[in-house]
Design brief:
The complex is a heterodimer.
Chain A lengths: L13 E6 L2 E4 L3 E2 H20 L4 E2 L2 E2 L8 H15 L1 H9 L9 H23 L23 H10 L23 H14 L6 H19 L25 H10 L14 H12 L6
Antiparallel strand pairs in A: 1-2, 4-5
Helix pairs in contact in A: 3-9, 4-9, 5-9, 6-7, 6-8
Chain B lengths: L7 E2 L12 H19 L16 E4 L4 E4 L2 E3 L5 H21 L2 H6 L1 H17 L2 H9 L4 H27 L4 H9 L5 H21 L1 H7 L2 H8 L5 E5 L1 H4 L18 H5 L19 H13 L6 E5 L3 H5 L7 H5 L2 H23 L3 E7 L6 E2 L5 E11 L5 E8 L5 E4 L6 E4 L3 E11 L4 H4 L2 E10 L5 E9 L4
Antiparallel strand pairs in B: 2-3, 3-4, 5-6, 7-9, 8-9, 9-13, 10-12, 10-14, 11-13, 14-15
The chains are: A mainly alpha, B alpha+beta.
Bound molecules: iron/sulfur cluster (2 copies).
Chain lengths: ~290, ~475
């Protein structure tokens, strides 16, 4: 039971609430406080009319101002697109080899390219561009089809070994399982291990050298350093796209590999391609 | 609840009377200085060279810089602002525990602007009695004229107040020109409108209501005061029994109501310390004036400490003021306040004009190059706080053999534009045979050196090798 009483010192009634002997006085609110309440109610009604408010079965009431957060985002995006229209145009026209002489455009290309990369490229090459088994690492200095900025742009534009772009990089390693015996393949693998500085069987490798000379050197070169004209990897370096152990190498020689990349020219604008080429080139491996 | 108590109380109009005296004069000065600082500061100029704004005090939100005379604060140095806010807080604690609500009585914008508005009111409508009469009068042409004049002057002050605020955030002369030409950003007009409205409303109409009902500070202040706090009070043992007619047995209070009539909060200080009292001390001036006239000593209403009451009642001298002020609490507040103050000044002096931060790229942690070398990538942010472009040389030091390369440069030199920062990708490489390539971690230190001045700064980071 709460007990109402009148406080002696102030002449104000108590609310009847008491904590540890401290009683709450029931002082009246100022009248303007009440007006503020009415004002907020009026404001609230106005707000409900002006802005989306009431949940209905399919969506909410629209509000007479027609405001939507999606609309706001769209407006922001188009504002930025207008702002960047000139830069985008320059990036479409630019001679990529001269991009580094225009720091403002280069900065725009990096930022734009990073976004394009994350949206389109990171699925295979990884968000940090470090690639994975079968998907080249774009940070290192090893390039199958060339690491100059124009080469990178070409690879992105036309893609690799795809059916959709006649200008795509193209080459195909034979599946040597159908050509060589498994002993011959084993020997060739030992020779490749020798080329790349790995541990190898001396006897098999010398036999393998002959097979390599006959079968592989046309593309990978007599010294095994590969050829960018046909996207043939350098076999003497430390980087292996499909793994460097005997099993992986045997698999590669027996069944061959056939890495495909889409022709992004069919999906992205010229300026986006230039941007992402500049971005990839600037990741540390660019030549 | 009894029948006669309403749930809502109407605002009781207050007509503070003009008063003169020591505290009133002090308050005029404080008003002149604080308002002067507020209105004029944005117009002060300070030459920082061609690349930087020449406004002495500027909060450049878009450029993310805060300029205060020769000091320039970058976003990463926000701790200076935080430190100043803590000092402001501790300063309020200190003053409140020593002198009660001095902030409220003298320095709070609510008090200062209300004072100014009351001054205008008095100039236009006359002093207390005239204002009371006017308030009771019917709405004649005369009353309308006075009221509207007053409101217009208030409104002008309010516009100037709201206007001055926005000048702190962008170049004042330019903004003023744009404002007049109706070309300024809508946010500027919006801000001015809101601040004009609040100034007009709070200074003209809400006044004591703000302090009593809206402001949280009085509630907090209560917790910082104790019996030794000096605050405005009435020497009831000297004044009572009050009487208009003076007899042998009466006290010094002649019940002239001077102290009540001057009070901007509309209270009677003789009722004791009250929540409403902002300790503006005007009742002291009013009462001293009366005491002078009737030939009694001043100080019937005075700055008092509760702890002195027993001595004073017994006719003994109160504790000296210094003893009231110097107590563990105020000393502690002063100590903390100065500690942070010294810390900030110290931080200001050791602040380097060049600066770098290092973010190691950890996606991936490292990569292998075709010759088997191991490479880590770092993103360095270089800051040039000078007013001209500077060239920086990047280098590193480590116990192991490591090489540094800068993206897009053969020279390890990076130029940073004036008063800005640049992000630079930097590569660190360990040859296959080097220890750093083999072990999991190698400590390293990045150095940045101003090519011209030789100023240097460093940041430590680490290099990830193959051994996971
Ligand atoms: S009560 Fe609040 S608004 Fe009033 S003078 Fe004190 S701090 Fe200012
Ligand atoms: S009681 Fe005195 S000190 Fe307090 S608000 Fe009124 S005039 Fe100011």
């Amino acid at each position: 039971m709460t007990k109402h009483e009148t406080d002696e010192a102030t002449g104000v009634d108590t609310t009847g609430h008491e904590w540890d002997g401290i009683k709450e006085l029931n002082n009246p609110l100022p009248r303007w406080w009440l007006w503020c309440l009415y004002l907020t109610i009026i404001w609230g009604i106005g707000y409900m009319i002006a802005y989306p408010a009431w949940p209905m079965i399919s969506g909410a009431t629209k509000g007479v101002l027609g405001y939507s957060t999606r609309g706001e985002v769209a407006a922001e995006i188009s504002r930025f697109e207008q702002q960047n229209a000139d830069l985008r145009e320059s990036l479409t026209q630019v001679d990529l080899s001269l991009l580094k002489d225009d720091p403002d455009l280069q900065r725009f290309a990096y930022a734009n390219g990073a976004a394009v990369f994350r949206t389109n490229c990171s699925q295979c090459h990884g968000s940090g561009a470090a690639g994975g088994l079968g998907y080249p690492n774009l940070l290192d200095d090893d390039w199958l089809w060339g690491g100059a900025i124009q080469d990178i742009a070409y690879s992105i534009d036309h893609g690799i070994r795809n059916e959709t772009d006649a200008d795509a990089h193209w080459s195909q390693m034979p599946a040597y399982g159908e050509v060589l015996s498994s002993d011959e393949i084993d020997s060739a693998v030992q020779y490749v291990l020798q080329l790349s500085g790995g541990e190898f069987d001396v006897e098999m490798a010398s036999a393998g050298a002959v097979i390599f000379e006959e079968q592989c050197s046309a593309c990978h070169g007599a010294d095994g350093k590969g050829s960018r004209d046909v996207g043939a990897p350098n076999l003497t370096d430390a980087i292996w796209l499909y793994g460097s152990d005997t099993a992986a190498l045997t698999e590669t020689v027996t069944n061959a590999r056939f890495g495909v990349m889409p022709a992004w020219g069919q999906r992205l604008t010229r300026s986006d391609i230039n941007a992402v080429a500049a971005y990839v080139h600037g990741l540390g491996g660019g030549e | 609840m009894s029948e006669n108590q309403s749930l809502y109380a109407p605002q009781v109009p207050i007509f503070p009377r003009r008063v003169t005296g020591y505290f009133r004069t002090l308050k005029w000065w404080i008003m002149a200085v604080t308002l002067g600082i507020y209105y004029l500061t944005p117009w002060l100029r300070w030459d920082r060279g061609p690349a930087l704004p020449d406004q002495a005090v500027l909060v450049d939100l878009a450029g993310r810089r805060f300029y205060f005379l020769w000091i320039e604060i970058w976003p990463h140095e926000f701790y200076f602002v935080a430190g100043l806010l803590i000092m402001a807080g501790l300063g309020l604690f200190l003053f409140t525990s020593a002198l009660g609500r001095v902030w409220c009585g003298y320095a709070c914008p609510q008090t200062v602007w209300t004072d100014l508005f009351i001054l205008v009111e008095r100039w236009i409508e006359g002093d207390r009695n005239a204002r009371v009469r006017l308030w009771k009068a019917d709405w004649t042409l005369h009353k309308w004229r006075l009221r509207i004049t007053k409101w217009i002057v208030w409104l002008l002050i309010a516009i100037a107040t709201g206007g001055a605020w926005v000048f702190y955030f962008t170049d004042a002369p330019t903004l003023l020109r744009d404002l007049i030409a109706f070309e300024a950003h809508p946010a500027a007009y919006g801000t001015i409108a809101v601040l004009t409205a609040t100034t007009f409303l709070f200074g003209g109409f809400m006044r004591e209501q703000v302090c009593i009902y809206m402001c949280p500070w009085p509630r907090i202040q209560g917790a910082m005061m104790d019996d030794d706090t000096l605050t405005v009070g009435y020497r009831e043992w000297r004044g009572e029994p009050r009487a208009k007619k003076r007899l042998e047995s009466t006290g010094d209070c002649i019940d002239c109501m001077a102290c009540v009539n001057v009070c901007p909060m509309g209270i009677d200080i003789r009722d004791g310390q009250q929540m409403e009292c902002i300790t503006c001390a005007l009742c002291i001036d009013a009462c001293d004036d009366v005491m002078d006239k009737i030939g009694k000593p001043r100080g019937l209403i005075d700055y008092l400490a509760l702890s002195d009451e027993p001595q004073e009642r017994a006719g003994q001298a109160p504790k000296p003021i210094l003893k009231h002020i110097l107590r563990p609490r105020t000393i502690l507040y002063t100590f903390l306040w100065s500690l942070i103050g010294f810390g900030l000044v110290f931080a200001l002096f050791i602040r380097a004009e060049i600066d770098l931060t290092v973010a190691p790229v950890r996606n991936p942690t490292f990569i292998m190059l075709s010759d088997g070398s191991i490479r880590n990538t770092y993103i360095l942010r270089l800051r040039n706080k000078h007013g001209e472009p500077r060239e920086f040389r990047l280098s590193l030091s480590s116990d192991e053999v490591l090489r540094i390369d800068v993206e897009g440069s053969q020279t390890n030199l990076v130029t940073v534009a004036p008063d800005s920062s640049t992000q630079q990708r930097v590569y660190v490489t360990a040859r296959p045979q080097d220890a750093a390539a083999q072990q999991s971690h190698t400590d390293l230190r990045f150095w940045v050196e101003d090519v011209i001045s030789g100023e240097r700064a460093f940041r430590d980071s680490s290099f990830d090798g193959k051994d996971k």
